[in-house]
Amino acid sequence: QKEVEQNSGPLSVPEGAIASLNCTYSDRGSQSFFWYRQYSGKSPELIMSIYSNGDKEDGRFTAQLNKASQYVSLLIRDSQPSDSATYLCAVIGPAGNNRKLIWGLGTSLGVNP
Amino acid sequence: GAGVSQSPSNKVTEKGKDVELRCDPISGHTALYWYRQSLGQGLEFLIYFQGNSAPDKSGLPSDRFSAERTGGSVSTLTIQRTQQEDSAVYLCASSFSSGGGETQYFGPGTRLLVL
Known about the structure:
A: mainly beta, five-stranded antiparallel beta sheet, B: mainly beta, four-stranded antiparallel beta sheet, globular
């Protein structure tokens, strides 16, 4: 089992819809969780970080963390064509691994106008 | 400086040559990572420097790859005797650990092409 898993997609949603991206992780000791966006040919950029169970909202983006079920999700409301990108989930590994970020392979999202 | 910088932005080399890739992290950031990303693929972890601790080299694919971080700042990734399969984008990221989370800031990458 991979440490951080994401569906590779592509996920396709119409403009204005809600896009839901999911990520599961294997280690219950994981502490910090991040969503990055990567446009084609560009470097990843941080969208949201979340550390506690529950929801965290920032504009059109909502991150949801459920440590009991070991998943973290990202919801994008009112999806726009400019949201089309690959979304990477990253997790701070268990204590003792020198706080190294563990990355999923990313989910490709396409928003159709 | 505003962000993480990397040089060169593009590098074309011949098979068998050595290359050096440079990363200047954000000032004050204690952690520095190197990743490799092939076209359409995910991030492949290479090496991780954290403060004065011994680097985590567990991701280096072969002994042709090495990296140094001088004075806790600038880092150089060296690839010896390059092979065509080394062609990829090499990304550097830095972070400052605070309060239980590390936000990584990425440089623009070096696009390496081995002919």
